[in-house]
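for ur thesis appendix - Lipoprotein. copy paste whatever u need, i formatted it the way the template wanted (i think)
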Amino acid sequence: MKRFAFYFLGLFLSLGLLSSCEEAEKLTQFNIDYNTTVTIPSTFGVQVPFDVSTPAINTSSTSTFESNDTRKDLIEEIQLTEMTLTINSPSGADFSFLESIEVFISADSLDEVRIAYQDSVDVAAGESLSLTTTGVDLQEYIKADEFSLRINAVTDEAISQDHELNIYTKFFVDAEIFGI
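the 3d part is after this line
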């Protein structure tokens, strides 16, 4: 009977310790959101690839990490989990003019990396377009003071007006627990 009681006590303590570790890990996981805008200029052709870059995006990473009780040196991984493009203007416009789109990230002293894409944009995409993310670890880009995004896209129809887009990005951050 004693052996049975010790077994359950050990099992109970193990489950409690596991649960505590999972709760502590959740405390060091958080999301960082960024919004920026970019203008796609009107085009005069079809099947014409184009590149558009955002202005530099200030990461404010040091203060963001501090407000989440961590530091740059404790970050284990940062991944882009969501990227959504939304047309701000012209009113009533949609993404039917795009055939495909890729988004790249760059920062000082770091190579440019593809972070999101849509190989075939649906003609019924509407005014909002969610891109597939690549799952690349982006911690060095977000730890930098600023980064830029570059859109590379191919049109399948001409647009007669400039299109202003909002680019929403959500990054998942995983930091070490208690600096261990």
